[in-house]
Give the backbone structure.
Amino acid sequence: MLLMSFLEKYLPNTVLKFPTQFFLILIGGMLFVPLLGSWPLFDWDELMPAESTREMLLTGNYRMVQIDFQPFYEKPPLFFWIQALSMKIFGVNEFGARFPNALVGIATMLLLYNIGKLVFKESLGVLWALLMVVGVMPQFYFRSGFMHPMYDLFTFISVYYLFKLSSPDEFSSAKQQRKNRWAWMFASALFAGLAALVKGPACIVIIILTSTVYLIVHRGKLKIELSEMLGWWFILAIIIFSWLGVELYDNGTRFIDGFSGFYRKLIGTNAEGHGGPVFYYVLVMLIGFFPAAWLAFDSFKIVDADSDTQIHFKRWMIYLFLTNLIVFSLAKTKIVHYASLCGYPLTFLAAYYLYQLWEGKFKWTWKQTVPVVFMAIVFTVAVIGAQVLAPRRHLLLPYLHDEFAAACLMAPVYFHQKEMWLGVFFLISVIVSVLLMQTKHLRWGTYILLISSAVFFNTLLIRWVPRAERFSQHALIEFMQQKRNENCVIETDFRGYAHLFYTNKQPREALTHDKTYYKVARIQHAQGVLNADTTLTELYRKNGWVFMKRK
């Protein structure tokens, strides 16, 4: 009873209200769970945490993150602990590695629905929850074994409770207000600490910068007392040092040195070749969060009917979006999911626009029609183009200057011409939804746009992600799986984790004469590897990978 009382008071309407939240759970389950383990984990971002979790389970060492049974100082342990629980239940496999993020996706829908309902109305909450998951980027991440969905969720919750701290509370007594504020401060610090234990201190930077922007724009009126700030930092320190202190005691500053070196590389260099222009993440948002990204442009208008709390919440979302976008745009390393936190405020702004459209405060104009239809045409052309080019891939070879990419492109992957109709169906559905919007059938237009987007991107992911895996790494994973029960050692000339996870590598042992030694290299480096080690002989090459064995 005490737990339920706490949840009802301090979390945004977390007690499930049927049927709305039941259907949100059902929608999330249908989008994220089916075929979750149907294709191998991708190297690096899925295989790295999965391999570390596998080694935790194998060694029983849950305190130290390790890779190849050596300390791995780039990541904190919380995600691995949660993934280990999933693997305990479902096995050390693809489904077990990805299931936590499916739950994160469902939890995200429920959270956004409840916050939207609490701050605005139920209709905005529903729109926000749906807009957050219909795009190709969130659907992919909530079906993955990546660490970012959990990190983003915890960071967003921390920012949400800072908004609660900064908002006026006119309906509670002074005593109750103070009690509420300390609870919100505790919740914000707690989730900031959890986010830091998932992926590192970048979340703290984003949270502090967002709060600072709010403070500057509103001329110092953050409405957070010094004691609350100190309490926030104190709770955050306790959470982080509950693990970091043990790590420092056992290993000294090696963890901090390795961790800080990793972040310096990401910020100051083009790490592992992942570079891009300064507008890289703008393009990621426009494509990955369709249709939300294209509906958010008119959401910045001021609506007189909004209460002070609603105005404050909208501003927090704008500051969070801009802070996260600018910080990662300025970093030299550009990886798609580094700015995925932007999806929370971006989809809110889109939901806010649709909500005000339904309320008659905004109008649907050509500024929405043109980009939404244009992007639908782009997606449709991409789907049809892939079907047309698939049997004619050899025509692209003269334009590829990377030998490995060219070899991967010629992997035996087949496309079904009937899938062209998927793109046609999507385009027609978007056009129908836009026509309904223009003729004042706003709700039906919205429903068709959201449903068609969810079906299109979900079907696309289920059909195309396994093909992307076959193009990129299937031959490598296939070789590793074949050697799973063989008494052998496998090394690679590139950084990766497939040879650890898919061979079920055991704790490091001294090499003995009865172990077979294999080496794997990308095609452009294979001859150099053979020249450097004359004891190696080539077994075969497949789709850009060269497999060698010691004589």
